[in-house]
Amino acid sequence: MESDPDWEQPGPEPAPPRAAGRSRAATRSRAAARSHLPAHKMRWGLAAVAVGAVVAAVVTLSISGFRSSHGLETHDPGGGTTGARVDSAFGTAAAGDCLNWTDPKTLDLSKVNCAAKHLFEVTADINLSDYPGREFGPGTRFPDSLRFAELRDEHCVTAAQAYLGGRLDPRGRFVVGMINPGEPAWTGGDRDIRCGLQLISATGNATQQTVGRVRDSDQSRTFDPGTCIGINQSLPTNEPVDCAKPHAYEVMSAVDLGTQFNGAPPASSDQDKYMQQQCARVAASYLGGSDALIKKTLTIFWDSIDPRSWLVGSHRLNCLVGKGAAEGFSAITGAAKGSILIDGQAPVAPPSSGRSTPSPLPGAAPARVPG
């Protein structure tokens, strides 16, 4: 049995992040030296995600639920039985229930209070045998992962929208997922699926827990200050890691644009202006000095909020600090507040001209990633 649960995330292509450098001259130098990733190929704070590669990986994995043909086994895996799930967490899960598991190998589902940490919030329980046709009738073959992906898109996206009253953020941190009954239960006549919402990494792993119901949450794609996001082949993984391990960037703060803008979605240029001020200010205090960013040769980044996200209530952005590389990000080891290594080497501060350094300005996005 494969160990990692995977889901596919439908939705629009990424939006551009914003970056800031040491000065306008440095910004122009970077802009001239690199080819830019088009706006529609970028997403929030990830800045250099190779969308084509990620999409290709998703298609290859055919992620729709658990890759194992056994789906979620809620019985004792050593018991050798696939009996009815009337008393199981899966069999009794209904819209509004929250599920968790501790071991992706045994898939030990349990219901938990949604105020506690959990991995999956159920939006609908659907019996496929209620639909006309012979595809899900008695004795029919267990669907493959591609078919389950289609069923998720057909049923679970609509279920999520209904569950949230039409307020699902298409670029938010929660994605639509589905749990199938597993092949043994399917063979025994179980045709129930559970639609839900969950967090997911850029690599498709559903290992990030959340607290509270999605309907009561700001769906903005943000992390807590001090969080470091992992790196793999120069690209962010969207999963928190210990800052002592190599990572793509570190979160400095979370900014609520709702305190600055009211009503209609603010223009990207207005968001940029406000985020530039907020991120430049927080960088000085977060890193321990106005010149710390320069000495550590780091760059600050931020994103913009899509109008669709704004209208469903997502108003928060992160101020991020990292270092762009030729194709993505450099790997940083150590918390930005202390001593760091960049690609294994201590940063070398540029020579000082003796003149004051202007506040960081919006600059070029990191280099285009082939794919």
TrEMBL record:
Transcription regulation keyword on record: no
Residue intervals of the Septum formation-related domain: 95-319
Pfam hit, one: Septum_form
Entry protein name: Septum formation family protein
UniProt biased composition (Basic residues): 25-36
Keywords: Membrane, Transmembrane, Transmembrane helix
Region annotated Disordered, chain positions: 1-36, 345-371
Ranges annotated as spanning the membrane: 44-66
InterPro entries in the cross-refs: Septum_form (IPR026004)
Amino-acid biosynthesis listed as a keyword: no
